[in-house]
């Protein structure tokens, strides 16, 4: 009877699994006890490696479990019954769990189903010995007897490796990669930093690899720099030369962008894949080299990967630039300098989400940007494990499990908030303490007292926390609320608030572990996804603009396609997935033929594959960004900050722009702004940094769906660039016709996009002239 009951339960489980509408990312890692998860980015169901089998990911995106053959130097496949490799390839052997090669058991009838009812894709046979490529510089040194080759690492090791020649000696897997580590002491900036040090070379050595982690309690693979989360701090002075040496140990390409750094004269070091460089291949190396220049280049910045959406998996960290010209001075304006690194956090890896959004099935049957599961402060948060709908390990955390901050009384603490998120806006606050905002992005501003700071993706704010009314032993919360009004997808498993305990005392002092009893402010924590009103933020270094811009250009954001798999009206538009557009063009990222290379070769970049605004000579351009159709977007301009000179609701015509009174007297300068649905903003850009500069929505899921354009500044100068050979070398072996991330083309019956250079509306050309005439006539 017990045997019969077990059989029924097993059959019921199998039926439920086969009927499930989709396989979640955690399903790909749901392996029996004693087996290691080994799933590639193209796998639709688990690949599980028993002890004694190595996880091997091939360049085609599939994963295999391999063991050395007793007969020759080949490696042979092994896997666990019920996993994807058996289902797709019946006849694959099952290795004994002990790893001792013995009589292999053959599965004759593979299990069907999974993947939302789709048949499993054609899966190639596992690579043979001469097909497994290990990049130069990573081969095992046989002569030296090096035993550190990680081919038999049972973790989610992402390095393509070369098989070790088989010997009769005992074969044991090496230890898995260590879990993510936090170096929170780096986030407290040293008071001994010499702002007046002579310019010097600052070098950083980074290894980007996959590591296991559970920042909010839920276990998942993370992509990290040097195994650290948040990533390493880059701290430099204006005038320094920065060298960042990157070794890519992932199984996919990557790049690095230094958000907010001007890169004047080093456009090729800006980082976005397909725009200024080809990505760094798996096992490849690349050095980003650039000086920190510019009179106003100081303040708070951050770095992150700029290919697909992988920075939300952990490839990100702070950048701090000091300068004697910075009006915010330690000792006069603040006493302690503390970084607060914010993130929204997802339990599915970004590649799983992006691939699903670009497929006809969508992500959870929808194409809108997904909702996160939690928020993080300095790499840690709390997720309510009872909300989880995924299979996998979730260790319920409490507030006492999270790191804390200790500040002395009678001090002014500069809190540098950096939001390295993927989707919704956040509100940050400190219980019982008004925050005085003193910096927006990298623009120092005169103090503005607020209870909460709304901070959108990629933005930075510095605010003063004053502890003059606090005593030793006091404690209170720093809070980060996710603004749920910014979410389009349901969020049934979202933990909306993250808290960090601040204690008053001296470092090393025993302040106990009692949790604060302080209350949150009554101010809203949800609502319109807007910035802190720029009209209230006055730059401390005044910069007035010319009364008139030399030209006016439009950057219209819209979308085409369905919002979900049942959206018939959207499907009727000719695509079976949601695509975002700029001026009716969806960005197609030809990763191995970047725009910068095309322009330097003398080619016309107006191909209909990206919307480009072109300017000539040094001057000013007013860019009218309009959110024609869609939810709120945070837009970021690479290459230099812009000035926000006007905002409004609805849509604005060129004739209206020509007569609109804009603020040219010391407007706020920043590099990222929020734009509500059905609204517009005018930014003024000084065109003194030649290059091709991305301008895009910083919601990673929108960006992956094509919401990216570019500003081409002084193409006549760009064509004379002498791009370093190392930048060209990144493109070797890549397919110049590959679109990354891949997406479906429009259906054949839909009208093709024009490949010609977009014609300027006559009113666009005359808008600046009309504005001048209007103002002269009104004098």
User: How big is the Rg?
Assistant: 27 Å
Number of helical elements: 10
> Could you give me the name of the CATH homologous superfamily of the domain at 551-778?
Cupredoxins -  blue copper proteins
Question: Strands of the largest sheet, in order across it?
Answer: 17-16-19-24-21-22
Q: How widely separated are the two ends?
A: 97 Å
Strand content: 25-35%
Share of helical residues: 10-25%
Structural class: mainly beta
Name of the level-1 CATH class of the domain at 551-778 = Mainly Beta
| Name given to the CATH architecture of the domain at 551-778 | Sandwich
Structure, described:
The chain is mostly beta strands. Among the domains are: 130 residues, no CATH class; 228 residues, Cupredoxins -  blue copper proteins (Immunoglobulin-like), CATH 2.60.40.420. The strands form nine sheets. It has a six-stranded mixed β-sheet, with no helix packed on it. The C terminus is likely disordered.
Keywords:
6-stranded mixed sheet, globular, 779 residues, Immunoglobulin-like, single chain, mainly beta, 37 strands
